[in-house]
Amino acid sequence: MAKLGKRTTAAKAAFAGKADVTIEEAVALIKSNANAKFDETVDIAVNLGVDPRHADQMVRGVVALPNGTGKTMRVAVFARDAKAEEAKAAGADIVGAEDLMEIVQGGTIEFDRCIATPDMMAVVGRLGKVLGPRNLMPNPRVGTVTMDVKAAVEAAKGGEVQFKVEKAGVVHAGVGKASFDEAKLAENIKAFVAAVQKAKPEGAKGTYMKKIAVSSTMGPGVTLNVDAAIAG
Which residues touch 196 (CB under 8 Å, ≥6 apart)? Predict the structure, then answer.
């Protein structure tokens, strides 16, 4: 078995016996042990009591984190003419139509969010096998298929986070950076939990939120008290 480093050993010791804590306690613990040489991302994972194989138990949504993510979001927009110019003016990193489709089909995906105007979906639809597995396919339910490309680009750049339940019933996302102050991280976590709770599908049975864990990129995770997290 590989020997643990001093930093990892110290972090594990700090987290030992800590579980079912409040959001504020979790944030303080994570920040005090995020000692990597880079600004670690604070991640949240929510274990849901749903089976996403059933359409009526699919969980997906979008939330504008009040304090942003701390990450630079690269945005691609499929649009033509005036809407393409609108996207560029709003700060989109990549804008195109069939030319952009060919780039993506060639395996070059240099963006974190993909937005499209409704008339472009016939083109974007050909990229389903490429964008779908990466959770990049534009979808009207999360506001990425829209004529208001300006608002969509600005929202993406401003800290909007999309989420979608995975096959194992887990939703996860980055909710900030370890350099954020504790209050801002706590606000972001509360906003994310509230959004996932609001997205509860009609087909969900039994306990919806089973477990919530928060961690930094290089640090151990800590579980939250679910009832307290939902109450905010």
Answer: 46, 48, 59, 61, 163, 171, 209
